[in-house]
## 1
Amino acid sequence: MRQLSSAWMAGLAAGGLAAAVEVRAQQDTEGANAVLPWAYVLNDPAAAGADAPDPAEVVTVPGSSVSMPRSAININDGPPDWHPDAHPPMPEVVARGGGEGVVACGYCHLPNGQGKPENAGLAGQPYEYIVQQMTDWRNGLRRPGEPRMGPPAFMERIGLAATDEEARIAAEYFSSIDFKPWVDVVETDAVPKTRFAGWIHEVVEGGGAEPIGTRVVETPRDLKRTKLRDDASGFIAYVPSGAVGRGRRIVLTGGANSVACTVCHGPDLRGIGPVPALAGRSPSYMARQLYDLQTGVRNGAWSDLMDAAVKNLTPEDIVDIVAYTASLEP
Ligand code: HEC
Ligand code: HEC
């Protein structure tokens, strides 16, 4: 395994996620986490004495003939590929990583590029768009909105390190794959109680329910499979009652605070030309982008095109918009 250069990277690789990640003071009152704590997730302190799973245990996932010891799961230069027949052959940079600091894209974005709430779905995004984002990172134009959230800060370091050639190879691979339905959107007034671990919401077993308030609670359909990095196991997004309809109105008309999105992102929000697709993708990721574009920490070559759309959005608008975009067929 590659040498890891910081405490939280080591924690991620150790797989204990919450367990090994340095415990920090959470839920502070400043920064992006204070505005959208459900999107810029900061881990809760690890429960004292939590059992670490046995690294020698042989694990597998439904629908796969692959098996491996648990210790082979969190390997950032050779992450598990449970369903090798369900995606094209991965180039080296996706499967194992590239030069110094360029961690295997498939480690976080998954081999099929479906991605997770703490990162992004890359499958099916336009080639030119992916290449442009990598260029923006390299030029320091895409900064993380909440530097204490590990994965986006890690992506920034990878974007700074990746070469044009590595970016092009990865872009070619991910843009060639269809993005599959991945997020079930459920409107509700009450959600299962969750805790923050591994930079996502984890349902607290036996924790009961709590009011949803103004947030999106995106959580694995099957936490065990997500922890095993199974790229065939998606997510549920609980959203406030009525959010999807309110979001639809903003997307189609601009509503009171924005402009119609469909002119640029396409009538079904599946993207047009180099403009990215939004439909069916992680609402947590999309919320971070709307806020990062609004605050200007994401200020890439094409970001000005989003100015009118994001300038006056409220946190409530963001909840509604991403509830709607996630609910669409990709
Ligand atoms: C350590 C985990 C990790 C690895 C490894 C990783 N990424 Fe990412 N990537 C992220 C995160 C997290 C985000 C979302 C950042 C945010 O929320 O602002 C992201 C976002 C992206 C995006 C933006 C998608 C969009 O819709 O704008 C692109 C493009 C991307 N990554 C490409 C790559 C490529 C290419 C590689 C391999 C060379 C790679 N990533 C490796 C974590 C990772
Ligand atoms: C004038 C064209 C235009 C309009 C109108 C527009 N967008 Fe965008 N949008 C873009 C472009 C171009 C990008 C890529 C920006 C970049 O590269 O930084 C983008 C990026 C995004 C992203 C980030 C996607 C990702 O994968 O990281 C989101 C989310 C988004 N737009 C949502 C919306 C919503 C919601 C609306 C309507 C309220 C909207 N956009 C209206 C052109 C537009």
Note: The domain at 7-175 is CATH 1.10.760.10 (Cytochrome Bc1 Complex; Chain D, domain 2).
## 2
Amino acid sequence: MKLNKHDKTFSDYIRDRDDWTCRRCGRVFGLINGKRERGLTCSHFWERRRLRTRYDKDNCISLCFPGCHTLWEHEKQGDYQEFMLMWLGKDRFDALRERANTHMKRGDADREWQDYYMALKKANLKSKGVISTPEKSSAYPPDGSGGLI
Ligand SMILES: [Zn+2]
């Protein structure tokens, strides 16, 4: 599926939330000469074509590519699911599945994310124009290990 500008802003949001760290192996993607090191992707647990959860913060984590991204997205019922359950807890995990199976029009999904992102941007304008992301992931998984391994 082709990525649009909303996918890009959302991907930036998720990777910033995760402190540019792969949630599986813990590799940190730093800045080199002011430019972000490449290779960290925003992974969708429920695939992107499910529009209701396309821009859902509970549905996405940062994974390095190809390494962890390929490994986990290949078989979502295994370790990836275990991680999601541990991270979200059963109630949030179930609620996410519910949303993933709910229909939403493409335009509505795009608009909902764009509205959220614009509001966030506006709220952050005073702080150097940098988007600061609520719900930083440093606090989870609950054991604070920064990943499963
Ligand atoms: Zn990784």
Note: Helices lie at 5-17, 67-74, 76-100, 106-124.
## 3
Amino acid sequence: MQLFQLLVLMCFACIFIQANSDISKFPSLISVQVIVRHGDREPDEDFRNPLGELTNNGKKRMYDFGIFLRGKYGKFLNYITSSKSVSILSSDTGRTIESGLLIGLGLSEVTVQKSKFDEGNLYVPFPVRTIPAEIDDFIKTSRICPRFQKLLDESIENYVNDFVERNRRYFTKFAPATGHWIILNKTANSDKINFFVFYQEQAIYNATMGSPLDEVALEAVVNPDLAFKPGYDALRVDSVEKQRLYLGPLFRQLTNTFLAEDKKKLNIYSAHDRVMYTFMLTLGVWQDPKETPPYGSALSVELHETFSGETYLEWWYKNDTGSYLLEIPGCGKPCFFSQFIYQFDQIISGDNDIECQLL
Ligand SMILES: *[C@@H]1O[C@H](CO)[C@@H](O)[C@H](O)[C@H]1NC(C)=O
Ligand SMILES: *[C@@H]1O[C@H](CO)[C@@H](O)[C@H](O)[C@H]1NC(C)=O
Ligand SMILES: *[C@@H]1O[C@H](CO)[C@@H](O)[C@H](O)[C@H]1NC(C)=O
């Protein structure tokens, strides 16, 4: 072959490679899983009757999140959002199912527009599947696990008493203002805190909606020492045993989804802050000890393949401020999938059916 011809050929090859890598922004992306917290909601009616429906802001936030996902993964999905390549799985509550539907709408908007013309104005919703609360052990984690409940009850008692003691000045104002004297009773069980938690949730909601607050309500919103939830939810994962009992099923869900032969490209879990927060604590990537994940925040994990065929994980956290690439302590850069499984083996390899019954 003449040198000239060879050069031309090589150049074609280099243009071809160049063009190919431009075609897809994610040449090595194989599959993505996204855990997202539902949108802004109303406060719960009470502890046994959690209604907490999405507000209009919350609806818009979830629709916008669908559009965000479309922007980030549209190319990867070849702009086809069918249930062959995408799944949306929700916990069995109104706010998460509605969030899932709105994400699906934002994600598939262009497809929906097209089918409107094709099918004569039929709205084509994206299917959102859900798991009944009694057997949900990884989205809402509402399945009952007696062993875990026992461990948790033991730690809650101390946490609640410490919390009230630390904030005694506040609670001596709160009790007469609300009539809930029981909160000052040191021997009453930890349920005594429920009224305060419910009250604080309402106060925060009222503050966001611009309603006036009385003095004890205002302090419950602005005083960082009165942040109850982050420390309370953290009790769920403060030992390896609790992590395994509480989050083992989620760890297995995520790893098995990536290990499956016929995996979907995009898997969305419409979930709650508690599971996202405890999961991020366990991974070692949660930043703010006074907060839990805000409405519509999302934790994504992407499975990538290197040129030599090894797979690694990329973790992303998205909130109102931006999208952040996370580093799992101890997993390295890149965080190889095999290393991740090895590192969290004590959590992943549990058997909840057996361990939950050990009392
Ligand atoms: C405090 O709570 C305990 C346990 O519920 C109860 O027996 C006791 O009477 C309460 N004390 C006061 C002063 O209300
Ligand atoms: C919140 O607002 C509602 C309705 O305005 C009111 O009934 C409730 O007492 C308020 N709660 C708090 C804690 O401020
Ligand atoms: C969003 O998350 C980043 C990373 O954890 C954090 O630094 C930032 O403060 C968060 N933004 C808000 C508004 O909380």
Note: Residues 37 and 271 are 5 Å apart (CA to CA).
## 4
Amino acid sequence: MVANLSPARQGPQHCPNASPDQQGHESLESIIIECDLYGLKQLRKGEILTSSSDRTPARPTLIMDADFNHRHNPIYNPPMDTDDFSARMLAWFDLHGRKNLPWQTERNPYRVWVSEIMLQQTQVTTVIPYFIRFMTRFPDVSSLAAARLDDVTAHWAGLGYYARARHLLLTAITLETQHDGEFPANLDTIQKLPGIGRSTAGAILSLGMNHRAAILDGNVKRVLCRFAGIEGWSGQASIDRQLWTLSEQLTPTIRVGDYTQAMMDLGAMVCTRSKPTCASCPLMAGCEAQTTARTHVIPAPRPKREMPTRRSFMLVLRNSNNEIFLETRPPTGIWASLKSLPEFDSLDGLKIWCAQRNINSTQMDVMPDRRHTFSHYHLNFTPVLCPVRAIHSVSENLHGGWFTSATMSSLPAPIRTLLAELDMEATRSTHLTIKS
Ligand code: SF4
């Protein structure tokens, strides 16, 4: 199988119409040495490596012409067939790939799945402590399926995008009740599970079961866009389709798990968003963006769109025991099922709520606005601090209760930050009062 690379990479302009030094090689010997380095078939000088008989002849895999006398073409870009591509990636992975991340030890589909979900929109360094805590509490599908939602969200608090935590629980329950607690070894079936897209399903199959399946996460998109010189925003449907086709064609039949990890690692460590270190990239010899000096424009960024802004008021009721009143949010919508401050669309609405509960709002302190940005809108919220003397000013109910900083859990990150700051201020002013 030969990769169906972009039109720009096909045709005679990519064959040897330039000298090796235009590609950063001083001689053919250096290219041969590079082939050796990456464990590729060694070429004799002047040898033309063509497609093997079982490959489509549509795109010959020319690597080198006999005499390098085509210096008129400024672009020398030897094409790379799928075998070359994966061989280079695997050789690079053996030397430089990451092999000791927590989810790579005792690797199984469950650990791969949880790590993949956590890594969506989140950096590896942030995920590591969360993953370790999560695995200690929920070591397998059964323990997760038996968990309460608030226990799962408590282990997720701070990672954001809480729908991911709900989907984890739902999927664990589905696996436990319908698939004997195991991931089915079938791409379509895995994709039907809550919160699992095509790329995550591919990662579970390839990394967790070593089954041949392609992935296309953000890092891999960037590598493939640059390698094949695909312009435009990768979120565009036509480009997404093109990238999936390419990813599927390039995925090898052996060492699929290592190859998948290699692609992820290359995107994270070498082919980074800004300033990719092409000199240390195993794909450099065939990379369109590098050869044409377009790594800074490929891939194109997501087109900018104006994000709407939502406004709200958060009531911080603090009683004389320095406890805060928190409510459990509804099971859908933002911060679903997490504990948070009572939220209102207007200051009047907040005051009415207080009046109905005999809370004196004359001592309210309307604090400066804060902003939290979700993926699709900004939330500008105004904290309103309201001291109450007695605990029974607001009765505890099914959805709400009083919490100290030590007993709070499952809070959205911006609310946790706000309450931590208020707690610190309260502690400081207590100290000042005692001193004076
Ligand atoms: S050569 Fe550079 S741009 Fe091309 S894939 Fe490698 S790191 Fe990315």
Note: The pocket of iron/sulfur cluster is lined by residues 223, 226-227, 270-271, 276, 278, 281, 283-284, 287, 289-290, 295 (CB under 6 Å).
